Amino acid sequence: MKSGFINIIGNPNVGKSTLMNALVGENLSIITYKAQTTRHRIMGILNGEDFQMIFSDTPGIVNAANRLHEQMLGFINGALKDADVFLLVTEIGEKLKNEQVLDKIINSDIPVVLVINKIDISKQEIVNQMTEYWQSIIPRAVIIPASAKERFNVDKIRDTLLEFLPENPPYFPQDELTDKSMRFFASEIIREKILLNYKKEIPYSVEVAIDEYKEEKDIDRISAIIYVERESQKNIIIGKGGQMIKKVGIEARKDIEAFSGKHTYLNLFVKVKDNWRNNLKDLKYFGYDSKN
Ligand SMILES: Nc1nc2c(ncn2[C@@H]2O[C@H](COP(=O)(O)OP(=O)(O)OP(=O)(O)O)[C@@H](O)[C@H]2O)c(=O)[nH]1
Ligand SMILES: [Mg+2]
Predict the structure, then answer these.
(1) What is the pTM of this model?
(2) CA 274, 280, 286, 289: dihedral to nearest 10 degrees?
């Protein structure tokens, strides 16, 4: 049996979550066109007859401007320490901005599979240039141009990763898919709708907490609280006559139902938590407890 930890690392917005979802075959991580969509380390497990691939999706590498970012970097640093293989995701036309993270990867002896993603929107010539560039930076890396969105070369990435996995008994029960709960996925789906429906700083000032998750026979009843940082943001979230929050609720409920396979009643509330992104107690309450 082959089993091991494949930790996905890269800049914001390069398609790390899209790739993990494609590899695992489930929409575990939320995906948006905005940077800093993923804030946690999210495990996705692909079980085969004779292998178990344990992926970790991580936040994009950011410069820490607040304590939330420090926690996000903590998840990345954790993923740098416990990998059997690094799955480094890059996209056309970009270099890894954070030298510290790149240096740690260069200086370790953990195998690297480096994906040049989004080749569906690039020219072959540029792909060749990027391949040469990355091979010179990380000589031991196996480089695979791909399109996570179009699923081009996703099977090749999986097969290549499998070659690097150590012989091990499975770490998790073989019907397990993730380390996160339905509560977590529900809160992430709501946050995805907020990222997609509001502009500028609003989505970044928002965190979602599940207040109640009651599973009844035919329906799940969920109460979620959308936390913002300031009173003025509360009105923006709610929108004129409550139209905006209603839209978010409808969109989120549909996706939660698709994910859980159950009818869902979703009730949304908005509250202010002053400056929560810099408050360690609040961050811990929201599930940011990276110890690195
Ligand atoms: N054209 C194209 N777009 C892609 C591809 N893969 C991902 N995207 C898009 O890139 C954007 C970011 O994708 P994500 O998977 O959320 O990226 P991420 O690296 O997880 O981003 P963060 O969590 O913010 O760090 C989304 O709009 C995706 O649809 C691809 O292969 N081709
Ligand atoms: Mg992501």
Answers:
(1) 0.96
(2) 170
Instruction: Parse the chain into domains and list their residue ranges.
Output: 2-164, 182-285
| Assigned CATH topology for domain 2-164 | Rossmann fold (3.40.50)
- The predicted-structure confidence for 19-28, as pLDDT tens digits, reads as follows 999 999 999 9
Q: Cα(260) to centroid of ligand 1, in Å?
A: 24
Are domains 2-164 and 182-285 of this chain identical in fold? no
Residue 281 C-alpha to ligand 1 middle, in angstroms? 31
Picking from 178, 198, 177, 187, the residue whose alpha carbon sits closest to that of residue 245 is: 198
Nearest CA to ligand 1 atom 1: 118
Q: How confident is the model at residue 292 (pLDDT cuts 50, 70, 90)?
A: low
What are the C-alpha distances in Å from 104 to residues 90, 101, 207, 282? 16, 5, 31, 30
Q: Which fold has domain 182-285?
A: GMP Synthetase; Chain A, domain 3 (3.30.300)
